[in-house]
Structures are given as C-alpha cells and as structure tokens.
Amino acid sequence: MNRSFLPILGVLLLLAACGGDGSESTAWTPVAEDALDAAQNAQRAWAFQAKDAMFEELSGTLMGAIRDSGAAEAIDVCRCEAPQIATRVSKEQGVTIGRTSFRLRNPKNTPPAWAASLVEAQAADNAYVVGADGRLGVLLPIRLQNPCLTCHGDPASVADDVKAQIERWYPDDEALGFAQGDLRGYFWIEVPAASE
Ligand code: HEC
Q1: 54-113, pLDDT tens digit by residue?
Q2: 144 CA distance to ligand 1 middle (Å)
Q3: Taking CB atoms and a 6 Å cutoff, what residues make up the pocket around ligand 1?
Q4: Atom of ligand 1 at shortest distance to CA of 169?
C-alpha cells in the first residue's frame, strides 16, 4: 500500500472508533434532580443500578488483586480490567458507563461531550442532562476513600514500587496527590430513552 496513505487511514480508523454512537450531534440540556419526570426518574434508577454493578465489580477485582499480589501488581490488573469491566457492565446493563476525572490517570478516560464542562468545573453534586433523543446522561461524583490512597494518595507516601508501575503504564498520570474525602472523579452513565 502507498505509505503516504497510512497516516490518513489511521486517522479515519480513529474517527470511526471514537465517533461510534453519534452522541456528538445530540443536543443535551441540563435538568435539576427534582425536575426529573417519572420516565426520567426510572432512567435515573437504571443509571444508579449500573453504577452499583460497576462499583462492585471494580472494587471486588481491585481489592482481590491487592490482597493476592500486592498494590503494584494490582495497578496492572486495574489497567487491563477496568476498561473491560466498563464494557461488560455497559452490555449487561444496557447503558454506556465509564469513569472520568478532571485529573486523569488513563488518558482514555476523557468524559463524553455532555459531561465535559461539568467535569472541568469539578461539579460536586450528581448532575443530569437530557438528550434531544430522550437519553439521560448521569454524572455521579466519586470521593476518595482510605483504600484509594494506596494508588492515588500523596506521592511522598505512595510505595515506590506502586509509583514505578504508575510511571511505567501512565507516563502522563495526574491522579496522585489526592487526600481522603477529595473529589477524585466521576461515574458517567448514558441511559437509553425509555421504550414505549
Ligand atoms: C491498585 C491501585 C489502585 C487503587 C487502590 C485505586 N485505583 Fe483508581 N485507578 C488506578 C488505575 C491503574 C487507574 C487507571 C485504570 C483505568 O483505565 O480506568 C485508575 C483510575 C481511576 C479513575 C478513572 C479516572 C482516571 O484517572 O483515569 C477513578 C475515578 C479512580 N481510579 C478512582 C479510584 C477510587 C475512588 C479508588 C478507591 C475506592 C481507587 N481509584 C483505587 C489504580 C488504583
């Protein structure tokens, strides 16, 4: 194949891979929690159920890995498993779910377009946006708990082997230096429109 064509092909593939659900073309309107109608409240409950499922799988996997092989090794488990868990839970729950932050460890965890300004502003409360197509976007803050400090705490107190793994896999990491109770990031969930 003509070599000069390869970079263009790469860009096209990237666009195809990232532009998949077409959400970019949907207009999203913020809505207050107490202004959600009955159908939107059902979507909200669905989002929370998906979040609980994701949280349980993630923390089970992570805590199991720490217990079995130590925190440094668990970095690698989290690196490989977290995106897979998000994909699996999305399928099982019939939503699209992910984690994001204003200070990312994994640069792939950027927020969907509808959540970007809320994430950047470090919104402290649950936030909801309604898509023109009836989807509900839900953004749920995640606060740092004690066990998270092992991998997200003050660099001076994070173990050297953990820091080495973080540097190895996430050279642009911004997710050290959090304290207990800090806003660490968000779960974001896109719930389909209620079917008639
Ligand atoms: C064993 C180390 C480890 C522990 C413990 C840990 N994390 Fe992480 N965290 C990671 C790694 C590695 C990633 C990147 C994985 C990915 O692609 O989502 C990550 C990513 C995240 C993200 C996604 C945004 C980003 O920066 O990429 C959030 C949010 C997050 N962690 C919150 C937490 C919270 C809250 C806890 C405690 C309940 C916690 N983490 C415990 C290693 C850890």
Answers
A1: 999 999 999 999 999 999 999 999 999 999 999 999 999 999 999 999 999 999 999 999
A2: 10
A3: 62, 66, 71, 74-75, 78-79, 82-83, 99-101, 104-106, 109, 142, 144-145, 147-148, 150-152, 175, 184-185
A4: 12
- What is the Å distance from ligand 1's center to 128 Cα? 23
Does residue 12 carry a pLDDT above 50? Answer: no
Among 69, 106, 167, name the best residue to mutate to test ligand 1's pocket (greatest count of ligand atoms within 8 A of Cβ).
106
Residue 194 is predicted with a pLDDT of: 78
CA 10–ligand 1 middle distance (angstroms) = 29
Residues 6+ apart with CB under 8 A from 154: 176, 177, 179
Reading the block at residue 38, the tokens are 């009955």
The alpha carbon of 38 and the centre of ligand 1 are apart by a number of angstroms equal to: 34
Q: Which atom of ligand 1 is nearest to the CA of 106?
A: 27
Contact (CB, 8 A) for 31 and 40: yes
Handedness of CA 65, 180, 103, 188 (dihedral sign): positive
- Report the share of the chain in percent with pLDDT over 70: 86
The identity of residue 102, as a single letter, is F
Q: Is pLDDT of 196 > 50?
A: no
